[in-house]
Input
Amino acid sequence: MRIRNTALTVAAGSVMFGTAALPAAAQPGPVPPPPAPGHYRTAPAAGVDAAALLAEVEHCTRISKGDYATDRGRPATIPVCEHDGAVFWQADMDIDCDGRRSTRCNSRTDPSFQQATAFTGSDGKYLDAAELPFVVVPAPGPVWNYLSSGIRGGSAAAIVHDGKVVYGVVGDTGPSGIIGEASYAAAEALGIDPDPARGGVPSGVTYIVFKDSKVSPIESRAAAEKLGEELARRFTGGG
Output
C-alpha cells in the first residue's frame, strides 16, 4: 500500500453517490521506461457496459460510519455504500505496486515498495501487482470493517473509469482512514498511468466489490474476469 503525501498528490475531485516476475531474492535489472502516455495496455470492451454499472451505484445505502480521505492530509469525503449484493465507493486511484518483485514493481521503481500484500495466492506467495488487477480496501477501523460486509481477500471486484471496466480481486489492505487504490495491473488495464511514484488519477474511479464472492485461485486473472463479469451482469439486472 502506497500512501501519498498531500504535497505530492493532485487534489482529489469531488466524489458523489446517488444518496514475468523475478524471484523475491533476485535483484532487478535495469528499470525499463514506462510506456508513453496513451500507450498503456487498456482493457478490451467489457461485456457489461460501464454506464450500466455506474447507474447501479446511484443507489447508495451508506454502510460506513464516516467518510474516508483519498490521501494523507486530505479531507474525509468518501463514503462506502452498498446495493444489491455489492459494496462500492468512488475515489481517486493511487498505484499499489507491492507484493512480488518484478521489473515494474520493486524498490527502485517504487520508493514505498513492500514485498508483501495482505493476501497471498494459492501457492502461498504474495500477489503480483504488475500482473493481477486488484483493489486495495482500507484495513478494518472505526469507519468501516470490510469483513462485516462479506468481503475477503479474493472477493471479485469491478473497477470503472472513463468508460472502461476491469475485473479483479480484493488483493491488499491499506490504512484504515484512506481509500482509493488499485494495483499496477488494474491501472494499466484502465489506461491510467501505472507508475507507482507518479501515476494514478485524482478522481473518477468507481470500485465495486461483490459481497460473499471468491475468485479461485485468487491469482488467476482469467478467473477474476469470468466471475467478475458474471456478478456484474447480475448486479445490473442482465443475468
Remarks:
- The first helix runs from residue 50 to 56.
- The radius of gyration is 16 Å.
- The mean pLDDT is 87.
- The beta strands are 61-62, 68-69, 76-78, 81-83, 86-96, 134-138, 156-161, 164-174, 181-183, 201-210.
